[in-house]
């Protein structure tokens, strides 16, 4: 009886966590991308497309976020879009930009 209760409890926990795990199934998480500090960039729940990105001599200018990402910190975006991945506190974890001349 105890074993069946534990099994049911573990199954319930797994079902509750499944959507969170599936939300991280994107090209970013599947690619196992890490930033220069060695942190995982993560997935769709942490990453979003940034529209209207421009450049300056300092790097990529992210509108509405008030952030400039140095060119040296950008990783190539395989889908041609600009992506920003954030930590729980909102700070940037990773940034993806289209390769030059695309």
Keywords:
alpha+beta, 102 residues, three-stranded antiparallel sheet, single chain, four-stranded mixed sheet
Main sheet strand line-up: 1-6-7-5
How far the N terminus sits from the C terminus, by CA atoms, comes to: 62 Å
Mean pLDDT: 78
Total strand segments: 7
Question: How would you characterize this protein structure?
Answer:
The chain has 102 residues and is α+β, with helices and mostly antiparallel strands. The chain has one domain (2-97). It is built from 2 helices and 7 strands. The chain has helices at residues 2-23, 27-30, and strands at 47-49, 54-56, 59-62, 67-69, 74-76, 83-86, 92-97. A 4-stranded mixed sheet has the order 1-6-7-5, with no helix packed on it. It has a 3-stranded antiparallel sheet with strand order 2-3-4, with no helix packed on it. The protein is globular. It starts with a helix and ends in a 5-residue tail after the last strand. Residues 6-24 have low confidence and may be disordered.
SSE blueprint and pairings:
Blueprint: H1 2-23, H2 27-30, E1 47-49, E2 54-56, E3 59-62, E4 67-69, E5 74-76, E6 83-86, E7 92-97
Parallel strand pairs: 5-7
Antiparallel strand pairs: 1-6, 2-3, 3-4, 6-7
């Amino acid at each position: 009886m105890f074993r069946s209760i534990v099994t049911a409890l573990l199954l319930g926990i797994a079902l509750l966590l499944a959507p969170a795990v599936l939300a991280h199934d994107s090209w970013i998480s599947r690619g196992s991308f890490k930033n220069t500090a060695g942190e995982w960039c993560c997935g769709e729940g942490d990453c979003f497309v940034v529209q209207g990105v421009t450049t300056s001599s300092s790097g990529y200018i992210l509108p509405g976020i008030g952030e400039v990402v140095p060119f040296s910190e950008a990783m190539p975006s395989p889908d041609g879009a600009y992506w920003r991945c954030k930590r729980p506190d909102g700070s940037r974890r990773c940034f993806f930009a289209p390769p030059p001349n695309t």
